[in-house]
Every structure is written in C-alpha cells, then in structure tokens.
Amino acid sequence: MDNKKRPVAEVCWELALPVADQLALEIWDVRFVKEGADWILRYFVDKDGGIGIEDCAAFSRAISPVLDQADPIGPSYCLEVSSPGIERELTRPEHFEVCEGCAVIVNLIRPMDGQKEFAGLLCPLSEAGVVIENEDGETQTFDRKAIASVRLMADWDE
Predict the structure, then answer these.
(1) What is the pTM for the complete model shown?
(2) Which CATH superfamily is domain 3-82 in?
C-alpha cells in the first residue's frame, strides 16, 4: 500500500520500530499534529526503568535519516521525541492491557451527571467501553466515543 494514503503517524510508527528495537526502546505513541502554523511529528518512547534525555536524543538522531529516506510526510515538520511521562495517556488497546489495575483518570468530552472527570482503577476493556472501579468498589463504564482522554494517575489514595 502506498504510504502517502495511510495515516502519517501509522507509517512513522512502522518506520521507527526497528530503530526503537536497536536502541532497546519501546514506542508508546506517535502523533502527527498541527500546532498553530507548525506540523509536529511527536514520538513518545519508553524503556524499563524509564528514559532520559540521552535516550530521546539517540532516538532522534537514529530516526531522522530513516524519515528523510522514506519521506512519509508532505509538509515541513518538527520532530519531537519525549517520554510518555508518569501520567501518560492511554490510547491503544495494548496500553489498556498493560495498565490494567492501575489508577487512571477518565476525562469525558461532555459531562455525565454534571461531572467530566472520573478516577478509579482500570478494569479490563469491555465491548461496552472503558471500565474503572472507584474508591467505593463500584464500576463505571464509559463509551469510548464519549471519552476525551484516559491518563494514568501519579497518586491514588486508597
């Protein structure tokens, strides 16, 4: 399939897999976004024990020639490489699997019962959507289309 017809982030993810493997890094997410007048290709990379600035710089140096050769992006763009952070956003099914049982915050697009933010422990994904268990042990299910974001919580008082 022609790379120009696929989403840029998907193509860039695939191009980066061998680079990340070579550097013993994991790609957490890839985003291609417009911020103001600029296009940004943003890689979020991680590894066991966390990453440092050196890891980000090494990945940036290694992926740049790969992107230049493949040329998957039409407009000029800025390349950014960073850690997904301790309060990382969960966007892919595998994120939800690895983070099952972790404390998360679910932010909704529109309020539900007057509230847009819900905290709890992440339960296994269901066909109905994202499920969390709150401090009272009750579960809440959120339709994926109603969710703005799901992020890990740095602290959870239980």
Answers:
(1) 0.84
(2) RimP-like superfamily, N-terminal (3.30.300.70)
What span, in angstroms and rounded, lies between the C-alpha atoms of 50 and 36?
31
pLDDT in tens, 77-117: 999 999 999 899 999 999 999 999 999 999 999 999 999 99
What are 60-87's pLDDT values in tens digits?
999 999 999 999 998 999 999 999 998 9
Amino acid at 68: D
Sign of CA pseudo-dihedral 43, 47, 53, 58: negative
139, two tokens: 């579960």
Give the up-direction half-sphere exposure of residue 80: CA atoms within 13 A in the CB hemisphere. Answer: 18
Class of the domain covering 93-152: mainly beta
